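User: Quick sanity check before I run a bigger batch. Here is a single chain. Can you write out its predicted 3D structure?
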Amino acid sequence: MTVVVATTQKIKHDDEVTMAYGDDLWFVCRCMQDGCRHRSIQDEQDP
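Assistant: Done. Predicted structure follows.
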C-alpha cells in the first residue's frame, strides 16, 4: 500500500502525522480518546 501526503509544513523525522477525516466518517472511530470529535458516535455504537 502507498499513501501520499501533501503538507503545508516540513515534516521532520519522528514527527507525528495525524489525519482529519472531517464530519462524514465512512467508519466508526474506535480510538476511545476522551477528546475525539467523534466520541458521540463511539458511545452510540458501544454498549
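The two ends are 34 Å apart (CA to CA).

User: Great, the batch can go ahead then.
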